[in-house]
């Protein structure tokens, strides 16, 4: 058997083994996206037996004139910026702190990662109890600020409510991205750090001029993944609203899509919002990759 025919046979078997994953992706990812894009051009009610009415870009024009839609854009932007930047920065700091420890590194990694194991619903339910007027959040602030019996209205005040949702998401996912940074840092050969120390670099210079440049691929991965997570947030805001919090400050796009489709039965309008969210996510991901596309760093 020639080398070329062997390579063809291996490629054919590779396609056979990947075919189930391809079919699964087409059925449960590609088809729903294509169907949502197509549905966004129709006026369609979720439970109505009437045939959908083609309206072209009518759903998009309605959204661009809708005050509630722009409020969702604002709520999503505030949440994404308020969560994305601290999450990337602190996950990098936590990873560096873990690797400076000579003992208990695995224990610290498990402790940081443990909230990520919880489902978003469970995490939000736990923090609903903490943000209760009689919960630990008020007790902590009263102790720290030397006040007594003050209710900081975590689930009623607009700014405190936004801050509360950011805290929940940060607590849940910062450990996950910390572990990714730990993996990226440990993949850098020790010989590179040793060479820098021999050349007279201190620990800060080694981190700033050696670790960070070589960590660019990992930083890009974390930044893209965390931005997508922030833009797709839903469970925390949904459960907070169900718990009695006002919807307007935390009415992110995903929550607005859910209410538009399930509560208002406007599936065509909700599909248009999904398409807009998809384009926003793709734009930010492309922008992050474009900004990070510099000279490849090798070692």
Write the layout of secondary structure elements.
Elements: H1 3-39, E1 42-43, E2 53-54, H2 58-64, H3 67-100, H4 105-117, H5 120-130, H6 136-144, H7 158-186, H8 190-198, H9 203-214, H10 216-231, H11 235-242, H12 253-263, H13 267-292
Summarize the structure.
By secondary structure, the protein is mostly helical.
Tell me the distance between the termini.
Answer: 40 Å
Counting helices, strands and paired strands, the structural category is mainly alpha
Quote the average pLDDT.
Answer: 87
CATH homologous group name: MetI-like
Q: What is the gyration radius calculated from CA atoms?
A: 24 Å
Whole-number tally of structural domains:
1
Count of alpha and pi helical runs: 13
Shape, principal axes of CA atoms: flat
CATH 2nd-level architecture = Orthogonal Bundle
The CATH C-level name is: Mainly Alpha
Query: Which runs of at least 5 residues are low in confidence (pLDDT < 50)?
Result: none
Helix content, binned percent: over 70%
CATH T-level topology: MetI-like fold
Number of strands: 2
Specify the biggest β-sheet.
2 strands, antiparallel
Strand order of the largest sheet: 1-2
Following the backbone from N to C, one meets helices and strands in this order, namely HEEHHHHHHHHHHHH
- Strand-residue proportion: under 5%
Explain how this protein is built:
- Helix content is 74%, strand content 1%.
- The protein is mainly α and 299 residues long.
- The chain has a single domain (66-292), classed as MetI-like fold (Orthogonal Bundle), CATH 1.10.3720.
- Strands 1-2 form a two-stranded antiparallel ribbon.
- Helix 2 (58-64) crosses helix 13.
- The chain starts with a helix and ends in a 7-residue tail after the last helix.
